[in-house]
Specification:
- There is one protein chain.
- The protein is α+β, with helices and mostly antiparallel strands and 78 residues long.
- It contains 3 helices and 5 strands, in the order βαββββαα.
- The strands form 2 sheets. It has a 3-stranded antiparallel sheet with strand order 2-3-4. A two-stranded antiparallel sheet has the order 1-5.
- The model has no long low-confidence stretch (mean pLDDT 94).
């Protein structure tokens, strides 16, 4: 699990599986939140990039209060 790089398309699929929606795009950044806007801070990432680095994924997971190891299991099963 050291230096995993995550595919953006698969990341978006995982976010949708968790119930998040793409709310808007600002510049090159996509902003995702639950339909009711309940996140204190939305999930933000560069949607046009093909890959997302592990550190950025971990930051987003902290926002969602989801364990990295659990995420990896779910991500790999997609």
């Amino acid at each position: 699990m050291g230096s995993l790089i995550f595919e953006t398309a698969k990341w978006k699929k995982w976010l949708k599986m968790k119930g998040l929606l793409h709310k808007r795009t600002k510049g090159s950044h996509e902003i995702w939140d639950y339909p009711d806007g309940s996140l204190a801070r939305p999930v933000v990432f560069r949607g046009k990039k093909k890959q997302i680095p592990r550190l950025h994924i971990e930051t987003c997971l902290d926002t969602l209060s989801i364990d990295f190891r659990q995420f990896v299991k779910e991500y790999e099963s997609l």
